[in-house]
Amino acid sequence: MRKISEKLLALLVILVLALVLFVMPKIGFSSPSTDSESSVYYNVVGGNSNKTEWIPEKEFSFQNYSAGTFEVNRHPDENVTENDIREAWKVYDRSFEAARNNGWFDYEEARKDGYRLESTGYHWLDLDRKTRTKKAVSPENPHNLIYYDNPNNESQKILAGFMYHKRLGSTEHGPQFGGPLTVWHFHPMRTAGYSGFIRKVVSMRDDIADTSEYFDIFSPEFENLEDYLNKTPRTAEMIHVWFIKHPDGPYATEFVVDEEYIEEPEKMNYTEFRQFALENYANES
Q1: Alpha helix ranges (H) inside the chain
Q2: Whole-prediction pTM value?
Q3: What is the pLDDT of residues 96-109, one digit of tens each?
Q4: What phi and psi, each to the nearest 5 degrees, are found at residue 191?
């Protein structure tokens, strides 16, 4: 009798392992994505084709391409999991609610709250807020608000979303809290226009005497602007969270969208968010 029980127990263990390893990943319940254990891959945005091609880090150098944007991904071939969706939804939900609670859907209210400096087209920065948080992703303290002109009302701006940003000068990878749903990106310095932007920031801050003090705030390893530009050929990594119905989804890299998508945002509910994720980030295997 004991031998029969032991055989049944062994069979049960085998069935459970098979369920975890082979069945659950197919339906979106595989283990959470882990950045620390993953290799890094890059995609050239706007290259010779519109196809996404993830290139292993050891085979990649962005300086070999003329493109202005490069995506970074540690989960390119992974099936999206329920945990990925939940974590991506949390940041989207908290970001949207932070915008609503702070009144940032009203452009003038955002300006009163410190978002007065336009950085690199559509992105509005509150420098003080950026220096107050060390977190790469803080929905209550977004680094940038993204505003587009309302195509139906030239005097009005529409809050399209947030942009989160790693520390200026950093080459650290942004946290892919939503696995393959949350891909970060960076730009070559030749296309970013950072030199003029940083000088503009310094000129607007009474408490910063020159660019060396600016880098004391962001990246102390750089002595001044020229040192930064010489040593850093690319920007830090960044990620968008879109409130408008972006055709490529709520975490899309592309920030230029057709006018038809620029309208007052309506928040996605969790069911809509999950459906988009499963339809666009589930591997066909």
Answers
A1: 2-18, 82-102, 107-112, 127-132, 189-192, 194-204, 211-218, 225-231, 270-281
A2: 0.79
A3: 999 999 999 999 99
A4: -110, -5
Domain residue limits, the chain: 1-29, 31-188+234-281
Q: What are the C-alpha distances in Å from 209 to residues 118, 195, 199, 203, 224?
A: 21, 16, 11, 8, 12
Calculate the CA dihedral of residues 175, 201, 150, 110 and round it to 10 degrees.
Answer: 80
Q: Which helix (H) or strand (E) holds 145?
A: strand 144-150
Q: Is 93 exposed, middle or buried (0-12, 13-18, 19+ CB in 10 A)?
A: middle
The number of residues making up the chain comes to 285
The values of phi and psi at residue 8, to 5°, are -65, -40
**Model pLDDT for residues 242-264, shown as the tens digit of each residue:** 999 999 999 999 988 999 999 99
Instruction: Supply 127's token pair.
Output: 């420098």
C-alpha torsion sign, points 138, 162, 171, 56: positive
d(CA 158, CA 105): 7
Spatial CB neighbours of 52, under 8 Å, sequence gap ≥ 6:
43, 71
Other CB atoms within 10 Å distance of the CB of residue 271:
8
Helices 270-281 and 82-102 sit at what angle, rounded to 10 degrees?
Answer: 130
